[in-house]
Structure formats: C-alpha cells, structure tokens
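Let us practice reading a record.
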Amino acid sequence: MATSKVPRQHWQERATAKRDSVNVLIPQEWRIKAPSREEQKDVAGTYLHQHLSSQEVEITESDAVDIAEKTTTGQWKAVDVAKAFCHRAALVHQLVCLILICIQKPVC
C-alpha cells in the first residue's frame, strides 16, 4: 500500500498565513506601518497617541469610574468607548502580533 506524502508547510509560511488571517480583521483605516527602531522604544505611550484621536486617548486612558460617569451623563456614547478600545487594541496587535483579535464588525 503506497502512501502519498503531502509536503509539510514550512513554519514561516504557516506563521505568515496566520498573521495575515488575523490582520485582515483590522479595519483598513486602523492599519499602521511597522515603527522604526527608535519609535519602538515607546510604543505604549506617545507612539500610539499619534494614531488615535484626542477623544480616543482620553477614553482609553480613563478609569472605569470616569468612563461610567461620562457614558451615563451622555458625554460619551458607549459605542464610541467600544470603538476607542478596539482601535487601541488593533494598534497594539500590529506592534506585538497577538494570535487572536476580537473586534466585532457591528461595533466597528
């Protein structure tokens, strides 16, 4: 009985395929170029700020009490809060290449 061997996909090809399958979930307007070596030193703070609106920075750097207050008083919409956190998470994902990303299309 002859067995056919299917060539094993090289790990780098599999990694690229997985990365691409996750990256396609990020809205086009949230995609960024890889930062330079100099910029990589501070990807958590000011580097991210340049890709977020001032409101998104304010929302994502607020604590839960402030977010609850501003959404219940109507200063912020819950959907805007969700989008701000999704946007920031999508940016971070592109910098650290997480395995999964959970951004729901109806929110974004």
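A brief commentary: The chain has a mean pLDDT of 79.
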